[in-house]
Design goal:
The complex is a heterodimer of chains A (167) and B (242). Chain A has eight helices and no strands. With 167 residues, chain A is an all-alpha fold. In chain A, helix 2 crosses helix 3, helix 3 packs across helix 4 and helix 5 packs across helix 8. Classes of the chains: A mainly alpha (167), B mainly alpha (242).
């Protein structure tokens, strides 16, 4: 009974920021099955590490840390890579959503070529996290976050440019 | 291609509702939370627990050997030493088991998490792997002594060739057992080292490379065991052709 209450309370908080789990799955998963596996493992690790949340940082920051630690250190099953994007669900919005899906596919294709640490940095940048928060999450200095993000963004922009040129 | 395109993609990424939905209903969550994790700490734990169990079985078998050969003073002393060594290994592996980083570390920075994992591997688990490797020779030794008792009712005096074959068997059992365990984790630890190295490049404390020591030690061990194996093969070749 107590466990059920704990799970319910914990899940209410996680649900508020569930997009973090899906973003991690999107960035680190090689395909749909891998993505689902990773998201479930992140949820499990969040549950196991729940006692480490001490309220000093925002719950979403803590969630990002646990999720990134899980994504970077998990021993993965070897599966082929595929581009990830859900298919549009509403026919009336198909044209818009198809374009959106193409853009996300393009971005995912470029991010998939980055290293695990570069993915973490760019994911936090995409999510408009502050440099301080990124530094705190990764464990590097704020100055270094700026230097690295410039480098990774240039690399990512070049890769996207090449992908757009190649049909 | 300029970075404004990237900024546009970032806006698209932020505006999509792709990440706001997902199968996190209560029943599914309970099912996920009840399952076993696939994280590496659990794999460290399983490897140690399985080996401790195997060594306990070996210790019981050795106790039986001690009783069977109780009239043979030399063998009793040898078996007693092996049994004490086995119990010592069990104690050390149990201590490594207790040192596995807890799940609370998940809430620390990526760098702290990787450092804690690498420190545990370097200080405790890589040493424990050598002890885990001893299970092969221990099973071989205990099996041979049991076999000789049930086949011949005791041990006959060993000559040089017997000792060489017996020694080669023990050596090979160790190399295969330890080698398999090392190979299982090596690729993974290489990945952790690379991530940590990448974090520390231009960023952390200057010139800090906690992985360098592990790499150097690993190279020394590889060279040492390759030489031991080569010597064993040469010895075996000489004994069989003389």
């Amino acid at each position: 009974m107590r466990v059920n209450q704990d799970i319910s309370g914990f899940m209410d908080r996680v649900r508020e920021h569930r997009n973090i789990i899906h973003k991690i799955g999107w960035a680190y998963g090689n395909n749909a099955a891998d993505r689902e596996d990773l998201e479930q493992e992140v949820l499990l690790q969040l549950w196991k590490a729940r006692a480490s949340f001490n309220g000093k940082s925002a719950f979403s920051t803590w969630m990002y840390r646990v999720a990134l630690n899980t994504a970077i250190t998990l021993r993965r099953r070897q599966r082929p890579t595929e581009v990830l994007s859900r298919e549009p669900e509403t026919p009336a919005l198909q044209a818009d959503q198809a374009q959106l899906a193409d853009e996300l596919r393009l971005l995912h294709g470029a991010i998939a070529k980055l290293s695990a640490i570069e993915k973490a940095l760019i994911l936090l940048w995409l999510d408009e996290r502050s440099y301080e928060e990124i530094a705190d999450t990764i464990g590097i200095s704020t100055k270094n976050v700026g230097v690295r993000l410039v480098r990774i963004r240039t690399k990512l922009a070049r890769m996207i440019g090449n992908m757009e040129k190649t049909p | 291609m300029n970075e404004s395109r990237l900024d546009k993609l970032r806006d698209t990424w932020r505006s999509t509702n792709e990440f706001s939905t997902g199968p996190f209903d209560e029943a599914a969550v309970k099912q996920i939370l009840a399952r076993q994790s696939r994280d590496v700490n659990r794999q460290f734990r399983v490897a140690l627990l399985m080996d401790i169990t195997l060594k306990i079985v070996v210790a019981v078998a050795l106790a039986v050997v001690l009783w069977l050969h109780r009239g043979h003073a030399g063998l009793t002393a040898l078996n007693m030493s092996v049994l004490v060594g086995t119990l010592l290994c069990i104690g050390l592996e149990r201590s490594a088991l207790n040192a596995i980083p807890g799940p609370a570390l998940g809430g620390s920075s990526v760098r702290s998490g990787l450092e804690a994992m690498l420190t545990f591997y370097r200080r405790r688990f890589s040493r424990a792997l050598y002890l885990i490797g001893l299970s092969g020779p221990l099973v071989f030794y205990t099996g041979v002594v049991h076999y000789l008792w049930y086949r011949y009712g005791g041990l006959r005096p060993f000559d040089g060739a017997d000792l060489a074959v017996f020694g080669a068997g023990l050596g090979l059992a160790y190399l295969l057992s330890a080698g398999a365990q090392q190979a299982q984790f090596r690729q993974y630890i290489n990945g952790v080292e690379n991530c940590l190295k990448e974090i520390e490049e231009n960023g952390g404390e200057p010139n800090a490379d906690p992985a360098a020591d592990l790499r150097a030690r690993r190279l020394r061990h590889s060279i040492f065991w390759s030489l031991v194996m080569l010597a064993g093969v040469l010895l075996l070749g000489w004994l069989t052709t003389r």
